[in-house]
Amino acid sequence: MKNLKDDLINMALAMGAIRAGVADLAALQGPPSADPAYLLPGARSVVAFALPLGRDWIPDYFSKKTRRVFADVMYDTYQSIGAIGGRLKDMLESAGFPAAAPQPNGVYRREASKPGGFMVPDFSLRYAALASGVGTLGWSGNVMVEGHWSAVFLGAVLTEADLPPDAPLESNLCDGCRICSRVCPLGFVQAKASDSVTLGGREYVCNAKGNHMRCGLVCAGLVGLSRDRAWSTWATLRYRVGEDDRALGLAFNRALSDPASEYIRGHIFSDNLRHGVLARGREETQPTCCNCALVCSGPREHRQALMERLHASGIVVRREDGTELAVRPEHLDPLITFDTENEGG
Ligand code: SF4
Ligand code: SF4
User: Fold this and answer.
1) Is the C-beta atom of 302 inside 6 A of ligand 1?
2) Ligand 2 center to residue 93 CA distance, Å?
3) Distance (Å) from CA 14 to ligand 1 centroid
4) Contact yes or no for 292/233 (Cβ under 8 A)
5) Residue-number span of the structural domain to which 139 is assigned
6) pLDDT digits over 106-135, tens only?
7) Average pLDDT over the chain, rounded to an integer
8) Atom 4 of ligand 1, residue of closest alpha carbon
9) Is-contact 137 129, C-beta < 8 A?
10) H helices then E strands: how many in the chain?
11) Count of the separate structural domains present in the chain
């Protein structure tokens, strides 16, 4: 098994992973999405790995110069994760061990996910990365990998092989700057309230997180206006979303029927999206945020500079011809097109 494990790890590294490790079932004892048996009933261990997103392009993405640069990085990285997963799965099956490679993003358990609320993945790549020593948990809730902070995407392969496990990391790569909470437009990543998760008998602490649809509204490409109404993500609806779940529900329902979101609705509900990110074409890859992970891509002064760039970047509007433009908030009339505070219900 040691030789097989070494071959798998070396293959992942040769195909572009920056770090790879193995978790056994004991290290994955925890929340339901840490259980590999959901996807592979006889699973005995998990090979987890991380790929770098790079960071030279992030200033252009944050300053609203272009979002295409991140779309290409996102598409290429997901496809690389799919290729590594497929290769490791083949190696395990050739050695006689059933294996499964989960989608790197975009697939959720229907029976466990609540409409408009918490979305549970088939298998949590974050928990796999923590349990296998690939990375540590940042305050943002993203996994951080040494030398790359949280500018990484994760992958994994589940197998019935009893591979020798690696130990979770003892170090803490997060310095607690809380900059991740200051680039999250609707306040999903919180600055003060904390929460914890126990995995393999270890407690991991991160921010308490708001209702998951607070991130979903943004990452679906709908609402992008920050709570101080000074900047936006690449999502173009300019809503003021109140603090409670009622306001969130109002905003979500309104966003899905707003004529201004028509261009993105076909994208949100396309069949390819339901089948996960590996089924998406390059042109269907349309990131609007990921700010919490991307801002954490270097030392504190780097994060601070990225945050300031984002906060000065303006608010994205979409012209009739489909092109996007960042505009100063004082030049937008009306600045807010829907305010949950002014709605009954
Ligand atoms: S931005 Fe700061 S607080 Fe947030 S995860 Fe990174 S290091 Fe931790
Ligand atoms: S992806 Fe954007 S909206 Fe979602 S948690 Fe991160 S910063 Fe917040």
Assistant:
1) no
2) 37
3) 29
4) no
5) 2-342
6) 888 876 665 555 678 899 999 999 999 999
7) 93
8) 180
9) no
10) 11, 12
11) 1
Burial class (CB in 10 A: 0-12, 13-18, 19+), 67: buried
Q: What is the CB neighbour count within 10 angstroms for residue 131?
A: 29
Ranges in the chain, pLDDT < 50: 345
SS3 category, 253 = helix
Q: And the tokens for 213?
A: 């649809």
Q: In this predicted structure, what is the pLDDT of residue 113?
A: 60
| Residue 207 CB less than 6 A away from ligand 1 | no
Residue of 208, 288, 213, 221 lying closest to 249 (CA atoms): 213
Nearest C-alpha to atom 4 of ligand 2 is from which residue? Answer: 215
Residue 13, sorted as left (phi over 0), alpha (psi -120 to 50) or beta, turns out to be: alpha
First to last CA, the chain: 60
pTM assigned to the model: 0.94
E strands within the chain?
19-24, 45-52, 99-100, 136-137, 143-144, 152-159, 194-199, 202-207, 239-240, 315-318, 324-327, 338-339
> Which SS3 state, helix, strand or coil, does residue 211 take?
coil
